[in-house]
Amino acid sequence: MVSRFRLVGQRYLSQAWGALCLASALVATPLSALSVTDSASDSQAQQLITAYVDAWRDFYPSQAFAYGDVQSASAFEDFGGNRVGLWLDHNAEIQRGIRELVAAGELSADLQADLAMLAEQVRREQSDWAVDQPLAQQPQWFAELVSQALTHLLVREQLSPEARSQAAIERLDGVASLCETAVVTLEGGNRLRTERALRVLAGTRTFYSGGLAEYVATWPQAQDVTLAAADAATAIAALEKYLRDTVLPDADDSVSMGADAYTAKLTGRSLGNFDPPGLAAAARAEVQEVRRLMVLEARRWQQADEKDLTGADDDQAILAAAIEAMENDRQDNSADFLEEFRQLTFASEEFVKEHGLATVPEPTTLYVALSPAHFSGAAVGGVYPSGPFAPNADTLFYVPSIPDSAEPEAKEGFYRSFNTHFNTMIISHEMFPGHYLQYKVAVTHAPALRSLFPDGAYVEGWGSFVEELMLDAGWADNAPLTRLAHLRKRLENATRAYVSVQVHTAGWGEAEVMGFAVEEGLLAPQFAANLWQRVVHTPMQITDYFRGFQRFQQLYANKSTTQSTGQWVDAVLNAGPLPISLLEPLLQSTP
C-alpha cells in the first residue's frame, strides 16, 4: 500500500471530570473486588491496569486525546475542588494493589514488566503533585497545558466537522477556566520558568486573538469558536498580568533543584541505575571519547575530498574546518527546509525497508508541517505520536521552524544548526526507524500502558541509537560530514547530561553551562542557545538521550548471533517503550 503523508505549509494551530465517581469507587473498593477471583492472576493484574488507565484519561483528557481517545476531545484539564486529592488517593490504592499482586507472584513476564511500569508511573504522579506542587509553584506547567490545548484538534481527522467545532469551543472554555484556577492557586515560581511561561502564554494568546479565526473560518460554528477563543485570550491575559504583577516580583532566582531532590529524581527516573556522580563521570568520559571520534571523522572528510587545509595542521583545526563545511551546506528559507525534511522522510522509510532494518507497518500515517510559531518548542520541533487509543491516526511531525521574516543573524544560526547533514542524520532519530516507527509499532503490538507512560531513556535512547544504526547500514552513503553530524549530536547528548548534574548539584550557572557547551560540547549555535533553557526547564529529560543511548549500545552488542539486525529491531519495537532494564529479559526470551 502506498504510504500516506499529508504535507502542508505552516499552520497555526469546563467540563466536569466524567469518571470522578469511578475514581471514588476505586479508592473505596478492595482490590479483590476488581476480579472474579481472589487469586493474584494475570487477569486481576490486567483489570488493575485498565482501571488506572480509565481514571488517568479522565483526569488528563488532553493527553488522552493526544493519544487518540476521541471521547476526551471536548474535555480539558480541571484541577478544582478535591479532584487532585481523589487522583492521589486513586494512585495510592493502585500502588497497594501492585504490591499485593507482586507479593503473590504467579504473573507472566509481560505483566510483571507492565506492573513495574505502572508502579513507576504512580511514583511519578505522587512526586509531581506532592513534591513539585504544580498548582502552587509551576507557572510554566499551566502555560504548556494552555499552549497545547488545540494541537491535535486542529489537524487530526477523527471527528466530524460539527463535533470538532463543539470540542474546540469546550476546550477553549476549559482553557479560560484553567487560567482562572492558576490565578487562584499559584503562590510563587522560579523567575526563569515564570518568564518562559509568560512568553508561551503571550504566543498562545496572540494565536487565539488572530490566527485561529482564519484557520476555523470554514468550520461549523466558526463564530462561536472565535468568540470562545476571544474569551480564552482574555483569561490568558489576566493570568499574564497576575504572573507579572504578583509572581515575578517575589520569584525565586535559583535554578537548581538541589542535590537531594535531583538525586531522588534521577534515581527514580533511571530505576536506580544512576546517581549524579556516576552520571557526571560517565557523561564526561563520553565527551572525551566522542571528541576523539570526531577528529577521526574530520580527517576522513579531509582525505575523501582532498581538501587543501593549508595552515590546518592540527586535529582541532581540521575538525573546525569540517564543522564549518557541514554548517555551510544548508537551506535558507522555510519552504525549501520543509521540502528537505519531506524528501528525507520518504527516503528514510524506503531505506529501512530495502535494507531489512525493521518491519514497517502499512500504511504510513504522518502529518508533516513546520512547527507553528506559537508553540513553545517551535525552534526545535517535535514528534507527536498517535497513541494506543487510535493506532491509525496521524502522527504529527512538526519540523523545526523560524519565520522567514526573522533577523538575518537568527536565521543564519538556525539554518547552520539544522544544516543538511544534520537533517539527513536526525531523520533517522525522528522518523525511520526512530520515533515514528517506534511508536507506530508499539501502539499496535505492545500493551497500551507502555505507550501511555513511555520510558524516557528508551524513547530518546532509541532515537539516538538508530542514528548510528542507519549510518552503519550505509544511510547517506555514510558520508563523513553526515557521520560527523551524528557524533556532534552524540556529544551534545553527553554535554546535556553532564551540565544537568552540574547545575542542579554543583551550583553551575548560565556562564559555566555556556562555556562548557561551546568549548567542550562544540554545540551548534541554535542548540547552544537552547541548552540553558533545557537544563532549567527539563533537567531530567535531557539526561535520557545519553543514558538510553549507552544502554541500547550494550543491548545491541549482546544480541544473539542468530538474530539479524532487522529481527532484533522488531523485537525491541514490538516490546514497546519499557525501561531498558525491563526490556532486556524480554529480548532474551525472544527467538
Report on this model:
The chain starts with a strand and ends with a helix. The protein has three domains: 20-132, no CATH class; 137-250, no CATH class; 327-588, no CATH class. The protein is built from 25 helices and four strands. Residues 1-40 have low confidence and may be disordered. It has helices spanning 20-28, 42-59, 61-66, 83-104, 109-132, 134-137, 139-147, 161-185, 191-215, 222-247, 259-269, 276-305, 315-328, 334-354, 408-417, 420-430, 435-445, 448-452, 456-472, 480-506, 510-519, 525-537, 544-557, 565-575, 580-588; strands at 4-7, 365-370, 382-384, 395-399. With 591 residues, the protein is mainly alpha-helical.
Low-confidence segments: 1-40
Helix content: 55-70%
User: What shape does the CA trace take?
Assistant: globular
Count of separate DSSP helical elements: 25
Rg (CA only)? 24 Å
Lateral strand order in the biggest sheet? 1-2-4-3
Strand content: under 5%
- What characterizes the major β-sheet? 4 strands, mixed
Brief sketch in words of this structure:
This protein is mainly α. It is 65% helix and 3% strand.
Question: Keywords for this structure?
Answer:
591 residues, mainly alpha, 4-stranded mixed beta sheet, 25 helices, 3% strand, disordered N terminus
What is the fold's blueprint, element by element?
Elements: E1 4-7, H1 20-28, H2 42-59, H3 61-66, H4 83-104, H5 109-132, H6 134-137, H7 139-147, H8 161-185, H9 191-215, H10 222-247, H11 259-269, H12 276-305, H13 315-328, H14 334-354, E2 365-370, E3 382-384, E4 395-399, H15 408-417, H16 420-430, H17 435-445, H18 448-452, H19 456-472, H20 480-506, H21 510-519, H22 525-537, H23 544-557, H24 565-575, H25 580-588
Parallel strand pairs: 1-2, 2-4
Antiparallel strand pairs: 3-4
Helix pairs in contact: 1-4, 2-4, 2-5, 4-5, 7-8, 7-9, 8-10, 9-10, 11-20, 12-13, 12-20, 13-20, 14-16, 16-19, 16-20, 19-20, 19-23, 20-22, 20-23, 21-22
